[in-house]
Amino acid sequence: MGLNIHGEGFSLLLCLVLVSAPGAWSWSKEGHVLTCRIAQDLLEPAAAEAVQNLLPPYVDGDLSALCVWPDQIRHWYKYRWTSPLHFIDTPDDACSFDYARDCHGPKGLEDMCVAGAISNFTMQLMHYREGSSDRRYNLTESLLFLSHFMGDVHQPMHVGFTSDKGGNTIDLRWFRHKSNLHHVWDREIILTSLADFYGKDMDALQEDLHKNFTAGIWSDDISSWGDCDNLFSCPVKYAQESISLACKYGYGGVTEGETLSDDYFNSRMPIVMKRIAQGGVRLAMALNRVFGEHNQDIPRPT
Ligand SMILES: *[C@@H]1O[C@H](CO)[C@@H](O)[C@H](O)[C@H]1NC(C)=O
Ligand SMILES: *[C@@H]1O[C@H](CO)[C@@H](O)[C@H](O)[C@H]1NC(C)=O
Ligand SMILES: *[C@@H]1O[C@H](CO)[C@@H](O)[C@H](O)[C@H]1NC(C)=O
């Protein structure tokens, strides 16, 4: 039963898992939902149709309903191999990401990190256009993994230092409650924004994000978000951006045990929001390219 994504059983299971796993290591549910909603809105017809076809019927064509799925199954026996794919550990204080040096899982398994996973699942989805005769991959899973990991690679602290597990062991307070540096970036900043500025309304936040990359603060910047050459170099670039941001704004100025409040929130919120938007826009670009007519490369700016 646990492995069946179709039907009521899975939905119920999904709810139970969501309730019982508050500490997942990933953008909060909200972060992933926003990334996927932004992406799905930007899909061209061919990609929109492919996504629709790959999703199980009970989500009614809504990709964002399953964007947290990879967090829910990562501890299941069958999917334990996916656990290292959510992040990258870089050497302490190096503030850089080097694919050959850093992209590996436990026991040095090559490519087992979030950048390698994005290339992997993008490549698998390229088989979609060959038709359903190719059963090597489960393309529904490939789509959900790609959509989730595109979010994760944009969360700066998912490309963090090895010894503190991306900030997970740096305990501190977020306003009045206990948290840690990783969680501040996964969820606290997003949840505080939602509560303070958007009346906890995800649609309102999504609209504001959309406005900011179409006509607002990021509208000049957005054409450069697609600047990278291919399947392998694009996720490497996203990961390099993340570790730079993690060093400067995540770890920067933070001492274990301190209380983070307004100053940290106000200065970091714009970064979190931009990363969510970038994740969404780039996921759309990848899917449009993969399911479109010319599916050889990840998009270049046109
Ligand atoms: C593909 O994966 C999904 C999610 O794990 C599963 O529900 C579905 O049955 C799989 N499809 C095939 C053809 O194995
Ligand atoms: C790529 O996906 C396959 C499953 O389809 C998996 O066995 C392999 O470990 C994955 N590799 C990476 C780097 O994600
Ligand atoms: C959108 O941009 C405005 C500034 O024009 C800023 O105040 C707001 O926080 C931004 N919203 C998001 C979600 O980034």
Residues in helices, as a percent range: 40-55%
Q: Please report the total strand number as a whole number.
A: 5
Low-confidence stretches: 1-24, 297-302
Bound molecules: 2-acetamido-2-deoxy-beta-D-glucopyranose
| Rg over alpha carbons | 18 Å
Question: Going across the major beta sheet, what is the strand order?
Answer: 4-3-5
User: What is the N-to-C succession of helices and strands?
Assistant: HHHHEHHHEEEHHHEH
Q: How does the overall form come out from the CA principal axes?
A: globular
| Discrete helix count | 11
General description of the model:
The chain has a single domain, classed as P1 Nuclease (Orthogonal Bundle), CATH 1.10.575.10. The protein has eleven helices and five strands; from the N terminus they run ααααβαααβββαααβα. It has helices at 7-20, 29-41, 45-54, 69-73, 99-102, 114-125, 139-154, 181-197, 202-214, 233-251, 262-291; strands at residues 88-90, 159-161, 171-174, 177-180, 259-260. Strands 4-3-5 form a three-stranded mixed β-sheet. A two-stranded parallel sheet has the order 1-2. A hairpin with a 2-residue loop joins strand 3 (171-174) and strand 4. The chain starts with 6 loop residues before the first helix and ends in an 11-residue tail after the last helix. The site of one 2-acetamido-2-deoxy-beta-D-glucopyranose has 6 residues, from helix 7. One 2-acetamido-2-deoxy-beta-D-glucopyranose (NAG) binds next to helix 9. Pfam families: S1-P1_nuclease. It comes from Iris pallida. This is Aspergillus nuclease S1. GO terms for molecular function: metal ion binding; nucleic acid binding; RNA endonuclease activity; single-stranded DNA endodeoxyribonuclease activity.
